[in-house]
Amino acid sequence: MIARTWRGWVRTEDRDAYVGYVRDTGIAQYRATPGNLEAHLLTRDLDDGRTEVVTLSFWTSLDAVRAFAGDDVSTAVFYPEDDRWLVDRERTVTHHLVH
């Protein structure tokens, strides 16, 4: 099993709206992709007016991740409104083998 993580940051005042947006876009697309086992969205308010957002998904294989992300599985997938919300973001994702 493969765990895939990505991090981005939004203004804390935008947290709830962005969470709704990500559920409707990225999380929904993760879950609709064959080979996705689970998809979660985590948030953590920071002391500087930002909220860290983490997507955590579990996949049967890197081939299943490719079906979602394309050939370069290390590149993050973004959606049209992400620029509206994100004040910073990782451009890459991290994959881990789950034992």
Question: Could you explain how this protein is built, in words?
Answer:
There is one protein chain. With 99 residues, the chain is an alpha+beta fold. The protein has a single domain, classed as Alpha-Beta Plaits (2-Layer Sandwich), CATH 3.30.70. The protein is 30% helix and 38% strand. Strands 1, 2, 3, 4 and 5 form a five-stranded antiparallel sheet that branches. A hairpin with a 4-residue loop joins strand 2 and strand 3.
Features:
single chain; 3 helices; five-stranded antiparallel sheet; Dimeric_a/b-barrel; monooxygenase; alpha+beta; oxidoreductase; Alpha-Beta Plaits; 99 residues; monooxygenase activity; Antibiotic biosynthesis monooxygenase
**Percent helix:** 25-40%
Can you count the helices?
3
Secondary-structure arrangement, i.e. CATH architecture:
2-Layer Sandwich
The total strand number stands at 5
Structural class computed from helices and strand pairing: alpha+beta
CATH-assigned fold name = Alpha-Beta Plaits
Distance between the first and last residues' Cα: 7 Å
Summarize the structure.
The protein is of the alpha+beta class and 99 residues long. It is 30% helix and 38% strand.
List the helices and strands and how they pair.
Elements: E1 2-11, H1 15-32, E2 36-45, E3 50-59, H2 62-69, H3 82-85, E4 86-89, E5 94-97
Antiparallel strand pairs: 1-3, 1-4, 1-5, 2-3
